[in-house]
Amino acid sequence: MRVLICGATGSIGQQTLKTLKLLKYQLVGISFYQDYKQAQKISAPYFFSPIDIEHSNVNSYDELIKKTKPDLIVNAIVGIAGLEVTLLAIKHKVDIALANKESLLVAGQFVMKLAKTNKVTIYPIDSEHSGVYAILQQMKARTYKHIYITASGGPFYNYNKRQLAKVTYQQAIKHPKWSMGEKISIDSATLMNKCFEIVEAYWYFNTAKIAPLYHPQVLVHAVVEYKDRSYAFISPPSMMICIRLALTKFINASKYVKPLQKKQYQLEKIDPKTHWPIALAYDILKNPNTSLPVIINAANEQAIALCKQGIISFCEIIEIIKDAIKHFDIIKVNNIEQIYQIDKTVKEHIKRQWHRQ
Asked: Looking at the predicted structure, is the pLDDT value of residue 356 above 70?
């Protein structure tokens, strides 16, 4: 198996490299962003950075794919920047192991249609979607009643407003259970990650019958409810498992799929009325082909950057997202170019707003 890793210096990228060695797959190329020192440690014949051409030996993601001729592309790029790689992989008819949730969040309608047309399979790396994928594969054509994805709640799930007001960026990036990158750790702490994952699940599995469950034990990652009983995807909290399943096209996924014994696990429904990001996800699902998820994603990315710089507090991340939703009109999205333009406009608006302050 010839594998190209885009986002090789990040958390998922580094764990993918370890998995490749275990599987004895061939690494044919990598992309990185700004961590050239880390990229240097990776032995790859082709390497590319969109902001560091001096330390690249190809000039674009497109050329990287053409030169490496991969059988599978692992897209572990953080943020909307990863959408380009997803679209290029589909264009070149290369299967994708997808960790970049923004590809489906902001452009699900286009990505899934193009993937179907070009006969490209997208294998999820996120533990929740990996779990649902494995259960549905195991149960084959059986009709299910509902899909549940779990949430650890991050480090601050039971905090009140007064406690949240004291949370720092450094505290928020330290997830109590998972070893993850900074952005996804922040998204987990705000619950925006679960908002995004509900929308992702809609595109992966073509259903709105999706709900989150609070599960602090972090052992059950997904549950699919059938007429007679429910089945769960159960594993330790390790992304290495999900990465391996995606790279092997879920060949040995059945060993993680088990009938759910509810008494063994703490599983509680998350109330959208008290957890705004969950309510937001359901607002998106009412009409998923609009600019709403693009606005939300752009505002979230920019707010996290401001929080990291110490310009805003952790609590203000959600407030900036809410303000962006109020400020921008929700319109139908007709093409990919429109997505990029909306993303740029929202981020520039937030930058100007906070520069004045």
From this structure: no
Contact 143, 207 (CB under 8 A): no
Region 259-263 average pLDDT: 89
The percent helix, strand, coil of the chain (3-state, each to 5) is 50, 15, 35
Report DSSP letters for 256-307, one per residue. Answer: GEEE--GGGS--EEPPTTT-HHHHHHHHHHHSTTBSHHHHHHHHHHHHHHHH
Kindly report the pTM of this predicted structure: 0.94
Burial class (CB in 10 A: 0-12, 13-18, 19+), 262: exposed
Measuring CA to CA, which residue among 258, 259, 279, 265 is closest to residue 321? 279
Nearest to 254 by CA among 237, 227, 235: 235
Which structure tokens are listed for 282? 């359901």
DSSP state for residue 154 in the 8-state scheme: G
What's the pLDDT band for 263 if we cut at 50, 70, 90?
confident
Average pLDDT, the chain: 94
C-alpha to C-alpha distance for 39 and 7, rounded to whole angstroms: 10
For the segment 160-212, what is each residue's pLDDT rounded down to a tens digit? 888 888 888 888 888 767 667 789 889 989 999 999 999 999 999 999 999 99
